[in-house]
Design brief:
This protein is α+β, with helices and mostly antiparallel strands. The protein has a single domain, classed as Alpha-D-Glucose-1,6-Bisphosphate, Chain A, domain 4. A hairpin with a 6-residue loop joins strand 1 and strand 2. It is globular. The two termini are 26 Å apart. This is SRPBCC domain-containing protein. Belongs to the AHA1 family.
Length: 169
Amino acid sequence: MTTREPTGYLSTGTVWPELIITRRLPHVIDAVWNHLTDPELLDTWYGTYEGDPASGEVLLRTKEAPDHPGQALIEHCEAPSALAVTLASPAGAWVLMVTLSSHGDATDLEFRQRLDGLEYSAADLGPGWEYYLDKLALALEGGDVDSLRWEDYHPGLCEHYSQEHPEGR
């Protein structure tokens, strides 16, 4: 088992608690954006969707639960820098936001998830999103995303994400 280093934190926030994870990816912003929004590229690391995103709603099918698709409401989409979606879930609505900013041939990614009203805690969600963002990084590199092991993230990163950081890290 390999222990991963966390790249995010739990923020108490001014309005609601949220999970925040940041990454600098050594790829141009358009490549990162395409891996987040193109159904074929998204499927290389997370899952895919059916439907027309311009309608504001798609059916999302993740790799881990392909037989249990869920609705994804597109709240905000500003290519290639901001995407906000709400995923329907029996455990509460998952409100997610990704912002991208270009730095030459690199892209800064900031992922946020609202935590209010969810059955899951940041201690469980944080390691999961670290896992998926590492899969995204590998997909961008053309690497083997299936080489990542869930056990390297959970429970090893749970303690880190159970600690609140009101001002950031």
